[in-house]
Specification:
The complex is a heterodimer.
Chain A: E1 2-11, E2 14-24, E3 29-33, H1 40-47, E4 55-60, E5 63-64, H2 69-73, E6 76-79, H3 91-101, H4 108-118, H5 134-146, E7 152-156, H6 164-178, E8 182-187, H7 190-196, E9 199-204, E10 207-213, H8 214-222, E11 226-231, H9 235-243, E12 248-256, E13 262-268, H10 275-285, E14 289-294, H11 299-312
Parallel strand pairs in A: 3-8, 3-9, 6-7, 7-8
Antiparallel strand pairs in A: 1-2, 1-4, 4-5, 9-10, 11-13, 11-14, 12-13
Chain B: H1 2-16, H2 19-47, H3 52-76, H4 78-86, H5 89-93, H6 99-121, H7 123-131, H8 137-161, H9 167-183, H10 193-202, H11 204-212, H12 218-240, H13 242-245
Helix pairs in contact in B: 1-6, 2-3, 2-6, 3-8, 3-9, 6-8, 8-9, 8-11, 8-12, 11-12
Amino acid sequence: MINADHLCKNYGPVRAVDDISFDIAAGDIVGLLGPNGSGKTTIMRMLTGFFAPTAGTCSVAGVDLVEDSIGARRHIGYLPENIALYPDMNVRGYLTFAARTRDYGGNVKQRVDDVMEECGLAHMARRTIGKMSKGYRQRVGIAQAIVHEPEVLILDEPTVGLDPRQIVEIRSLIRQLAGRSTVLLSTHILPEVSLTCRRVLILDEGRLVAEDTAEGLAKKTEGKREAVLRLRADAAEAERVLGAVDGVESVELIGTDSDGTVSLLVAAAQDADLVPALVREVSERGWPLYEATPRVMSLEELFVKILEDGAGS
Amino acid sequence: MNRFTALLRRELRGFFGSPLVYFVAAVFLALSGYYFYTDLNAFITFGFGDSIVEHLWQRLFNDIVRVVLTVIPLVTMRVYAEEKHLGTIELLYTSPLRDGEILAAKYLACMCVFLVLLGSTVLYPAMIYYIQPFDLSQLKAVYIGLLLLVSTMVLIGIFVSSLTQTQIIAAMFTYGAVLLLWNLSWNEAALPTDLLGVISQLCAYDHFEPFARGLIELKHVAYFAALSLLMIFGTLRSMESRQWRGRR
């Protein structure tokens, strides 16, 4: 459904995207993961017809974006990063405009009603976009991307800048859409992809450095288990006690708070979930426990790991 | 056509849904009314019995053009600059609209604003005609010239707006460009004699003035058409620059 073949994009002397190829099957939901400046937005802008690749080809729903950009754009719904909407229009007016400019063939009024219902905007139909909260504007952004029933949805950082409740809502909305359209979304937040996508393309400095399933990525990021514990106890004693727990390789003091609590990073010798054993030990000692969290690898650490794995293999 | 009409409606909404165009119209009507009153007064005092074309319409419409030139940047400045600043242009560029369609919708919307403004000035000759009918053919030429001039100047403003994200910069450069083009050969004595011919050919005033005298000549129509085509070409290239600049 989405096909990229040796895509390259240069901005003057700078190569923003370097020889990227991938295929996304119909109905799939794929994440583009990479730090800021890794080329995610550039790839999306090529796939949406915003600009043409410097070299290589890409197609959407079987239509080549270089040869027939206008034709291909009819099959695409796009939510750009930091979506900008006309602030003077109301929701219904804007979605009607979006449906018409994207050549929606059916009953526009009915479709706009349905989309507003689906995106939780029905009670906001007459609200001026400029007066809406960021979360609702993002919903309007998603609504405009799906209003013409596109086969392909391209969402650039769909949850950026939203509060946690809005993030959950938008993620669940995206998962609902995945049943009907093929979705490509980008993010620089590691957990986002495993929560929403089935497959992940990992980018760094314009190159595709790895490709994995969401489960595979989750395994990679867990890898060697680590946990962070915050408790009230003597730091040296806590280090000694926790270091003696079965399966613990090392304990490191990572902080002492003014309220007298200490934070410790505990690493397991092998792949194992340490948290239950650690919590048991702490409660047996009667130490007040404030936090016990399995540590998730950061995106930067994941890159180091991917590059190390690549060098090792 | 459906998508083009939707975009045109959106553009018209952008003008008529915001207060700016009404402020602009109010100032335009006040100034053009003032010029009509003072020019008519001068005609009655000094030129009564002489040609109404030469002594009233020519003077009045040259004055009205001066007001129009001030108004053009205020109308065209937002056309691209605002969309680039807001980021809304990205969705236009990724919808199945050709760059030419986007430009045409924006141009037509601007022209609608000026048709309303220029249409309101018909009231002045209509009042005179009501009191004393006169030959309308020359007035038609004035309006054709006015439309050609405004259309060309609007395209200059649209082109400048496509080059920047800042409306005030677009307005200032457009004002500079249209005013220079209008006044280019106003003091022939100050221009090098060997360039005088060329500069006079480039000067918008020299091409509008025959229309104001009631004459329609192909070479003057061609001047406005050529300049318009140049601006359309420039705007389309400017829109295309996203290909290599990577920005909207």
